[in-house]
Design goal:
Helix content: 25-40%
CATH architecture: Sandwich
Largest sheet: 7 strands, antiparallel
Structural class: alpha+beta
Number of domains: 1
Order of helices and strands: HEHHEHHHEEHEEHEEEEE
CATH superfamily: q2cbj1_9rhob like domain
Strand content: 15-25%
Distance between the termini: 26 Å
């Protein structure tokens, strides 16, 4: 599915955007399911979860920041993760035999969806092999500079894991300190609805606030090769929620 030139670009820059992977109707269905799931979640949310999942103090589904593990909990997202075209591209980037060990839906609501500072996914996840993880960021809506598309530090996949910090009241918001982040130029990566933006686990990336009147919903699927393990994660990840989507000669995990 990926050309040699695309793979070389990913290796050089640490990220790659591929347009037209999924048709609009599959994205609209995923959005519908995500909002229905969000409404159900808000009906039973507790105070600790409000702090983790909501933008501000509103309890409306439009203020949800994210939902975790949609690939495990929702069939429509599991179907996206298992789509042969997507799996083939992932395996071209990190090798045969992969699983989704964690996934997220980001809502990024209009005129208020907050930014995500510069960070590296491998800092969050702590895999035992630096090249065994890739994130497939699926644009459920068109992602633009105005509504908060991703920005990448070209070539930062060659960097080591950098120091990260987080505000005391936002332990989930691990990021590279500003004085370190200022060393890296960040390039916007807009993507149309149904496109996928892939990035290496060491690649510096961020998103800005949504200043538009439109949602910027996306699904981030974090793929790990089946022979790799998370050995130093900074947050808790439940291995029982992993979903194997491609098996290789190594022992697959269910």
């Amino acid at each position: 599915m990926l050309t040699p030139e695309q793979i070389q670009r990913f290796t050089r820059t640490g990220h790659l955007t591929v347009e037209g992977v999924f048709p609009p109707d599959r994205m609209e269905l995923a959005i519908e399911v995500a909002h229905r799931w969000g409404e159900e979640f808000l009906g039973k949310i507790n105070e600790d979860q409000r702090h983790w999942y909501l933008e501000g103090k509103s309890s409306e589904v439009g203020r949800l920041r994210k939902m975790d593990n949609p690939v495990y909990h929702q069939e429509v997202f599991r179907d996206l993760a298992c789509d042969p075209r997507l799996v083939e591209m992932v395996e071209q980037l990190i090798g045969r035999g992969v699983r989704v060990f964690f996934s997220q839906v980001f809502f990024k609501p209009p005129e208020g969806g907050g930014p995500k500072p510069i960070h590296q996914d491998n800092y969050y996840f702590g895999p035992d092999q630096r090249d065994a993880m890739v994130t497939a960021w699926i644009a459920l809506d068109e992602a633009t500079v105005e509504n908060g598309c991703l920005f990448y530090g070209d070539g930062s996949n060659a960097e080591p894991i950098l120091e990260h910090t987080a505000p005391p009241d936002q332990p989930f918001n691990l990021h590279v300190p500003g004085e370190i982040a200022a060393r890296y130029a960040m390039t916007p990566a807009p993507v149309r609805q149904g496109g996928v933006s892939f990035h290496h686990g060491h690649t510096l990336h961020q998103s800005s606030s949504n200043t538009s009147r439109k949602f910027r919903r996306a699904a981030a699927l974090h793929f790990l090769r089946n022979d790799a393990r998370l050995v130093n994660p900074r947050l808790d990840f439940d291995p029982s929620l992993e979903v194997v989507v491609g098996e290789a000669s190594g022992e697959p995990r269910v």
